[in-house]
Design brief:
Structural class: alpha+beta
Organism: Trypanosoma brucei brucei (strain 927/4 GUTat10.1)
Strand order of the largest sheet: 4-1-8-7
InterPro entries: C2_dom (IPR000008)
Strand content: 5-15%
Shape: elongated
Number of helices: 16
Mean pLDDT: 80
Protein name: C2 domain-containing protein
Number of strands: 8
Largest sheet: 4 strands, antiparallel
Low-confidence stretches: 1-13, 233-262, 499-508
Oligomer: single chain
Number of domains: 2
GO cellular component, one term: cilium
Amino acid sequence: MDRPTKEATSVPSAQEVRLHVDILRGRNYPQTEDDPCACSTYARLILYDSLLKETIGSVYESPLQEGSNTPFYNTSTEYELPPSTEMVVLVVQVVETTRRPEPYIMFYGSCRISTVKSGKNEETVVLIHTDPVTQPEEAEAEVKQVVGDGLPCPNLSFRLHVKRRRPGEVNAEDHSDAVLSSAPVLDGSYPIIPKNSQYVWFNLASDRKWSEAFTNALVSEWRKQAMVSSAEGALPDIGESYAKVQGASRKKEPSKREIYVPTSINTVADIIVTQWNCCRSHEVLSWLRLSGEAFSRGERLCSFSREDVMNFRRKRKEQIYLLQDLAISSLLLVGESELRDTIDHLWIHFAIGVDHDPSRGTALPYEARKRMKEAGFEDADKVALHSSFLNFLVPSLAQDQCDEMVTADLNAAAREPDLANIVNKFASSHAGTLQTSVSEMKFTAALLECVGAMLDTLTEVEVSRALKMFKPCVISAHQRLKSGAKEKLRNAIASYGGQRDKFTYRPGGGIKIDHLDRLGRRKKEIHFR
């Protein structure tokens, strides 16, 4: 296994610095006697360095807010800053569009922002008539004069968020998949048979004793980890809370049972949801395989971080593409191929529910061949296939949980750039090859997308053996679709609203407020009749 080494996972000292700006609301815009109509304005943002000499990023303009002297711009933009930046100046121009023949700058404003450390802050910028870029001293004097008068003055409020992150650092709430910048090519950098391969997939699929021992060890170690984390987070404040509740003059010492209350961890599914914080299926496969390989080597199962998992996933994504290339190529080449026969066998069972083995040399009946020709493979089929595979590897995960994670992967993949689409590569390959339907290619790519994440080598022998061992997943997916689950999966894909909000509470992690709007009120859900 290509387990990340310390050299591979070490990160440089330079940090990525980003500034997120939310333009909130303008107030006290002027109302003139000559024009009884309210202003129609938009805000223009220009980010400068600390000396107001060079601009950073591009100019941003908010949508036009018509007929309001207290406009809600309610928009945002983000800037990428040079790593060594410690201070920037945000210059705002409020442009009015109706009071003169041509749009003109009605107000200027500026705000100095420290980017030394990460943090959020709200700023209210006083709007003036002097350009702070060309006349900085006059602009500063005008601001002091306006503020000193103590009268309501035009202003614009912002919410600022400085983000500093090391290039290799992964956000705990970031569930995105690795993205391939180009299609991998099999060369010397990809070992056909890596050294020290552990074949976790084989043990999970065929060795019940190994699976039980691995599950027990995983649950036991993460339960201990949760106990330690719970104790560290609870120890400093428990005594004080008891004293306050009871009104005692001295602190009451809580018992060990009261201190060490771990998160309920009884199954692998509990670990996936509460400790690994997985919202997408690719995360589950990466964590599961890394844990299985650590168990086979006798190492600790909690010794790697999310950065290790992401680095591991990037390498697996490249391997998955090469395995998909290998499998689809076998479908098109003329001649005997055990891998092609295995894929055809699984595809026939998935498409029409017939257990037919092409390697025996018998042909399908006419009606079966007709149904095969008309068979398609859509997103709902892919969700059913991946969900069955996930449920096969982790039986403690409910089918609905598997569906949700796979649907999250599918919807996110539609938004992420896909520069290495394996099906497009082979869709037009017909000359001198066997005829293979695009649906079977999609089925093969989808099957290898989940199975390939668990494989070790780049050989037809391992792929063929693994597909045969995971045949129950294909049968289970076909039975689900046959029982009428396809329409339910289609609706789930169409109505998917984002990641679930079930996160583990950890001391110091803050309160989740995703269910509240900007004013602190509970968000209203629209129910269509």
